[in-house]
Structures are given as C-alpha cells and as structure tokens.
Amino acid sequence: MLKLAKRTAQAEKQAARKERLKQRALDAIDGGRRKQVRSLLKEEIFVQTQQARRLRREKWTLGPLAPQRNHAGSIADPIRRGRSSVTNNFGTEMFSSDVIPYWGSISVRRIRNANGPLTPKDVENRCAWAGTPKRLCLAVGDRAVIMEGTMKGQIAPIKDIKPEEGTVTLEGVARVNVTVPEAMIAEGDQSVQQIEASIPIDAIRLVHPLTDPATGVTRDVIIRELRAQAFQMDRVTRRLTFTRVVPGLNVRIPWPRQERPPEYQDEPNDTLRIDTEQVTFVPTLLRPPAPEAVLDELRNKFSRFRTRHTADFIAEKEAEAAAKKEANKYGSALVKRQQPGVSPPSMRTPLEEFHIQQKALRKERGQPELTDEMLEKIGRIMAQTKISALENAGITEIPTQSSTSQEPPTSSPPS
Question: Compositional bias of type Low complexity: which residue ranges (predicted)?
C-alpha cells in the first residue's frame, strides 16, 4: 500500500512539473506575441512621427504652396480614397504593412492595443483601487472622472468595461479618428470614423453623490478606493452578486440602475420553475448513488492518480510485493511465469532440488499431531529438567498456598 501511495505522489509531481513546463512555454509564446505587437505599434508611431516632421518642413519651406493633406480619403470612394490618392499617399513608403491609416487617423490595430499588451499582473495592478478584475466594483452607467492626461477633470458615464484588459470606455470622451478597413465599410459610410478610445482603470475614479454628515449638503465626491463585500450567489441565474463599500468610511455605494430584462410569457411547452426545483432523487446509505461500473469509468480505476482502492486490489498488490521480495533472493535468475522464490529448472543445484522435494513432502504430511504417550513423556522430561535446574542453582521450590485452604478463625469481640 505504501508503494501505491508513493506512485500516486510521484505521478502528481510529474503532472505538476509538466503543467509548469507547459505554462512556461505558453508564457514564452505570449511574450513573443507581445513583443511583435509592440514592434508593430512602434513602427506605426515612427511613421506618423516622420510624417509630422516632413509636414512641418514642407510648411516652413513652401509656405502657402504646401499641399493640403487633411482633405482626401474622408469618403468611401475609390477615386478619392486616401490610399490611392496622390495627395494623401504620404509616408506610405516607410510603412511595411498593407493597412495604412489615413492622414490624421490611426489604425484599428493601434486603437485595440493603445496601451500595449499587458500581463495578468499588470491588469490586476490597474484594477487594484476598484477590487480585482474578477470582482470589479465598477458597472456600466457609473460616472467616472479622468485623473491623468490632457483630459483630466472630465466626467462622463462609463459606456463599456473590459476587465480582462483593465480598461473602460467613457461616453463622448477621448474620441479619436480611426481608419476603418475596407471590408467593414458600409455603402455611404466614411473611411475614417470617430470612436471612444479605451482608458486605463487606474487613470479614472468613481464619482458619486454623498451627504456630508456635518453640513447635510449632498455633492459629488471622488471615491478613490472601493472594496467588494457581502457576496451572495443567486440560485436561479447562478450569478455572484456583492456590495461595493468605501473602506474606512463603511459607506455602501449603490449600483447604477440597469434596464429591466424583458418579461416572457409562459407557453404550454415551457417547463415551470416549480417542476425544475422539485427534488426527485433522495440518496440513501443502502445503495450507491451510481453503479460500480459507472464509478470505475468516471474515476478510471487504472489511473496513476487514484487514491481510493478496493480491498481485492490492495490484497493483489500486497501479494505481488511479497512475491517480488521473496524472488529477490535469487537475483536476476527469476524468469517470467515461474514460481516466486524458485530458480529456473536449468539453473537449480542438487541442493536446491533436495530442498524443493523436502518442502513438498512436508506440505503433504501437514502439521504433526502429538499422541498421549508423547505428551506424557514430554511432561516427565520437563519435570526432571526442572528438579535438576533447581538443584544446580541451590534453591528449592516454595509451594504455593492452595486456594482451598480454610480461612483463620476470627476472634469474637469482648463481652
């Protein structure tokens, strides 16, 4: 049994080591992908920087004769497309990619990776003031204020949240021009469209009205830290809900009002909730919850990670261990399909053959039985041996008091 436990522990260690190596390889692949994205973003930024420098030099040297590069490519027209236009084909010779953004706009790739690829630890650090990425104390509809950058101080409701990236989108704030790919442009739409850029969560703070207990005045307050408390699991929707609280003040911040979900009418083919919640199976101790064959299929009785074994399997393994221990007496002479503990016939010595015959004879005779005469003779010899042993030691045997001896008479009390 100890060997089985060691085998299971070794299998778990090997599986954990393989998982670590696999995760390390995946991290290396993700790291290479992040480096590639960073290089592409740097390339686009470099191209746009070179364009700005050339434009500044043209305006300085040409003056009013400098070309106007901010007019072409605004309409989805093949004739006036910026990529095919002579006036807007500016800086494309330095761009290795086929997707070239129009003048005054950025590519979709850059707007998606505006902050660069992040690691899970970086995302967790971004969401530190508002909980964790999985338990984020922000919701769509909350008002937030920007605390950094050129748009510092602007307040707007949250339009979208991406916890996996640690970013939010504010409605009407940080709008940028983006070059839309040709496959995504509808008829009559513009090639360059404005969308809200993503803002890191650590660059914003929640704005909520609170009442001052001293003055009784209610005003908007910037909340710099939030924590999740009072977790509850909804039995119907299987969703985890919690309450967000300002630590230190012990003030609960209510969630924004969400749109009510549509109410559906029950149809004849619908299953009622009372039927789904009805308990139809009550487990008992008299029979297993599933057949043993099904349990073996679910647990894989031949798995190395199994920790619960049947009595027959344990007895079989113990017998194999005992046979192997006995067979080790003969070293490598043991061959397959031979009796454990016995050398092959081709390698037996005459003495081993004699021992095997004697062992077979003793097994046939069985255990010896003693007759009454033998027992009497054994008792006589034991008595003689006892007397001679006491004489040699110079001591005598002290007879024990018989249990049938009468008790001494007790004296009567004086009159």
Answer: 399-409
